[in-house]
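Dual specificity phosphatase catalytic domain (viral metagenome), 162 aa
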Amino acid sequence: MNRPPGDAANEILPGLWLGNAQASQDILFLNQKGIDSVFNCTKNLPFTHSVKRKYRLPVDDNLQDEEIRNMELMSFEVIYKVIHEYKQGPILVHCAAGMQRSAAVVAMFLIATKGMKTDEAIRYIRERRPIAFQPGPNFLKAIQGFERIFDRDIRPALASKT
């Protein structure tokens, strides 16, 4: 797997990068990987000016039920945007440390696009970014809620269209 200096980001799938705030500000890394879309899973960390498309998922990693619920409520809109941008080219999903919020978004992406279950997605991400979800997945309830609703409502609708 390709990695920027210091493991600020790891490639989870070809063109899908999971990382920290440092990776989001590393213009050389972003340019070398062709990243034009950045998903910032924080309330206040700045974007670099070098990327064309910028998205924010304003969630704090404070283990408050309200923040976990916010992640779950915003997840479908965010994952739709992640899927759309991923089809256009390489993307970076990041939070402050690249361990919890951004990893949860990437897990939801894997559930939606690869048919993975929550535990499988978490394991897959940890194999590629060992610091992800350490010491445990703070947004597990949000990921499980996304999986439950996706499997119940969205996956059957998608299957009926094919």
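The beta strands are 9-13, 16-19, 37-40, 53-56, 91-94. The first helix runs from residue 21 to 25. ok done for today
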